Structure formats: C-alpha cells, structure tokens
Amino acid sequence: MIGCRLSESQKSENLKSKIQNPKSPQAPPSQRLHLALRYLQASISGMKELIFEVTEDPFGGYVATALGVGIHTQGDGLEDLRNQIRDAVACYYDGDDDGPSLIRLHFVRDEVLAV
Prior knowledge:
By secondary structure, this protein is an alpha+beta fold. It has one domain. It has three helices and four strands, in the order ααβββαβ. The protein has helices spanning 8-20, 29-45, 78-93; strands spanning 49-56, 62-66, 72-75, 102-108. Strands 3-2-1-4 form a four-stranded mixed sheet, sandwiched between helices. The protein is flat and about 50 Å long. The protein starts with 7 loop residues before the first helix and ends in a 7-residue tail after the last strand.
C-alpha cells in the first residue's frame, strides 16, 4: 500500500506526529529523537536516505512506515517485507531523480516482562 505524495509541510507534520504520538507502538522517546535527528541530518546533508520504522504486526508479519514520507507497506516475513519496501519506494518515486540512494530499516519491538 502506497501513500500519496505529500508537500514539504505535510512531510514535516507527518514526521512530527510519528515522533510525538504517545499512543503509537513506536520506540521510546530517546530513540524517536535519535531517528528524527538522523532524518533531519540526512535531509540537510543532501544524502538521500529513507528510514523505515518496522514493527511486528500483532496478526503476523511486519509493517513498515517511512519517516517523513507517505509510504506504508507490509510483508509476511522479513524477506517479503524487504521486497515490498523496495517496490513501494520504486512506485512512490516512479523514476524521479530525487528518490533515496539508501533505505534504512529501524526495527522496533516491545517486550513485556512479568515481575
């Protein structure tokens, strides 16, 4: 599943909501800040890196969401997810020269321990 193209302000708002939404099953605040800084650093330096946050789906498989870009996809296994991400990125940028030269996957996993 591929999101529509977003304006720069929408991309910033998307990233901001991903970082600030306390109800979403994402990394702890320190890791989210690290991801946001990495995203901004890559944007400023001109390096075309796209970061995907990968979580396990409670019903099986994996879900991946790009930070700062409206790309979302899923896969049954890790290899399937990697192929789906490549396909989603290729479809989103559709031959544009501004597509990423590097895709980084950030795996987020919550673990609950009984006391």
